Every structure is written in C-alpha cells, then in structure tokens.
Amino acid sequence: MSTRPFIAARVEEFFDRRVEGLLRVLGWREKVICYTGYGSSESIRVLGRVVLVPARARGGLGKATEELIKRRGFRNFFSAACVRAAVTITVGDQVVSVTTDRGGYIDERIRNHDLPPGWQQVGVRSRTSRTSLADVHVVADDVDFGLISDIDDTVISTWLPRPMIAAWNSFIRDESARQSVPGMARMYTQLLAEHPGAPVIYISTGAWNTHGFVARFLKRHGYPAGAMLLTDWGPTNTGWFRSGMAHKADSLLQLTRDFPNIRWLLVGDDGQHDPVTYANFAHVAPDRVRAIAIRQLSPTEQVLAHGTTTVLPEEQDAVADTPWVVAQDGRGLLAGLRALNEPL
Fold it and tell me: Are strands 156-157 and 179-180 parallel, antiparallel or unpaired?
C-alpha cells in the first residue's frame, strides 16, 4: 500500500508552495499566529501557524482600511501558509526546533517543561518572523473537573450549516454583529468558579482561520478563556474532506490521554451531531464523563441548521448511567445540572 498522501493533498501543497514563492518575491513577510494551548505537568501542547502577510500600511487611510477589512469575516480566510517552515519554541530555558506541516500549522507537544500550573506563555518564532507569545493553560495534577464545549450554536448563534447564511455569517458580517447564546457565558463562569484551575476546551469543526475571531468573541461576551481545537478545511492525507464528527471524537479521546484524572462536562447542541458524538464517547469512556448538557435549538434554528423541524434522536438510552440535561439556553442547562442527584 502506498504511503504517499492523497492526490488532492499533494496538489494543495504544490499550489501553496508556488503561492508562497510568489508572495515572498513581492515582499510579504513571515508571521507566527499563536493559538491557545493546554498542558499538564507531563507535557504542554503548543498550537499555531506560520503565514505570509503583506507589509503593514503606513498611511492613515491605509491603516483605517486595513482595520475595517480585518473586522470582516472574509479576512480570516485569506492567508498564505509557510509550508514546512522551520520554527523554534522557547519554554523557559528550553528551546525546541520544529517544522510546520504542509498547511503551515504547528501542533507540538513539549515534555519535561518546568512551567507551573496556571496560565503561562511560551515564545514561538520562525526563521524571519518576530517572536509571538502563545498562551498555554497548564492544569494541575489534582484537578478532576473539566468542561468541553462546542462553539457553533452552543455559544455563538451561527445558523450553520445552511450555505447562504453560513457564508454571510462567516465572510461578510462584522464580528461585532454576532450573537451569544443567552446564559451560556454565565453558566460556564459559575461552573469553573466552583472548580479553581479547571480547564475549558472549545472543540469545533470550524476552520483554524476563525480562531482570532472566536477568541475575541468569547472575551467580549464574558466566556472563560480556554484552548480551542479547530480544524483545517480542505483535503487530508487520505481523502478530499475532513470529517467533523471524526475531528471531535479524536479530540475527546486525546483529552482523556492528556488528562487521565479529569471527568468532563460535555456541552453541545442538537443542531448537528453533538448528541451522537457525546453519547458515543460516554459509551467508550463512561468513567470520563460527568454529564452531558445539550442546548435545544428552536424550531426556526432547526430548519436553518439542517432543513427540518425534527431534532436528532435522543441518545440517552445508549448511556443510561450518564446524567443528561437538555434546555434551550444556558440558564435552563445550569438549572438542570444543579438538579442532578450527583453534584458536579
């Protein structure tokens, strides 16, 4: 069996290399974009991407135009990857040399670090870029509670995946026009306040290009900071497209390995596949799930999400021993969680 990547992946890399070469000739410069990572006493996970960006505008009009474009969604999707670029990561006195993948992404685990629990920063730079600081949440070994949250239609009202509305929300609308799901930020904040040092991990099938927007959105609406595990749209090494369900399932299993002492509260919505994904995970690892909380979309949101008023079948019967709460907003979910026989 051939070990060569799928043809679409090879074509994508060929194209990206040609674009990168052209933009370098035009004077574009390297920039490291850092994503929020996480870790434990054993290892930390540093996430980011190296891209090429044009020289910054110098005049007042140019800077104003640049800022206006930045706030529009389509700006997030226009970047040129630095393919297989050399990168150094500095963690305290330790310097680690890594290489980006064919999409310019960094996903590196660094062991034997000396970072204490809490929010820490590590330096990341490419050969010609400035050093960027990556936030990393180091979780203490005695923490046994964690929160895993979907993003689309769980904390942000997106009306995905209906094509026209998804395109409008993602590419055209100003970032400040996006709406938060009522009560969710308060629910997350209260739960984490009861478990000092507990991590929140946001998992989504959305593209890494939207990381900056999502981080700003979460901060603006009062959500607790946490690592984000997004995905790279486009061909994989084995096929044309990535599986959103597989991405979430793989991320959940990876977190059980990274944090063997944590039992998770899983929060999602019934607009796509969260109930099935979470139920499957609870079936595979029942001792790692404290409860499942599903935000119930309204009939209008159900139509916009997947073209029908019929919600996904409930999966509680498959995981009868796992507490399961369903409500239309964060206030209802929090009340349901408070009513459980077993406290969180």
Answer: antiparallel
How far apart are the C-alpha atoms of 224 and 134, rounded to whole Å?
17
In this structure, are residues 295 and 269 in contact, taking their beta carbons and an 8 Å threshold?
Answer: yes
Residue 235 in tokens: 């061909």
Per residue in 246-261, pLDDT (tens digit) is: 899 999 999 999 999 9
Amino acid at 39: G
Q: Which residues contact 18 (CB under 8 A, 6 or more apart)?
A: none
Q: List all residues 6 or more positions away from 226 whose beta carbon is below 8 Å from its beta carbon.
A: 36, 38, 137, 147, 149, 199, 200, 201, 202
Distance, CA of 270 to CA of 298 (rounded, Å):
10
Query: Residues 163-220: pLDDT tens digits?
Result: 444 444 444 455 556 789 999 999 999 999 999 999 999 999 888 888 988 999 999 9
C-alpha to C-alpha distances, 273 to 48, 103, 110, 247, nearest whole angstrom: 27, 27, 32, 12
The answer to whether 167 touches 193, Cβ cutoff 8 Å, is no
Neighbours of 38 (CB within 10 A): 25
pTM: 0.84
CA atoms within 13 A on the CB side of 317: 2
Length reported for the chain: 344
Cis peptide before 323 (omega within 30 of 0): no
Sign of CA dihedral 266, 105, 116, 250: positive
DSSP designation for 233: -
- What are the residue ranges of helices labelled H in the chain? 7-25, 60-70, 163-167, 184-193, 211-220, 244-258, 274-284, 299-306, 330-338
What separation in angstroms does the CA of 336 have from each of 2, 287, 292, 294? 51, 21, 11, 11
For 334, the token pair is 């929090």
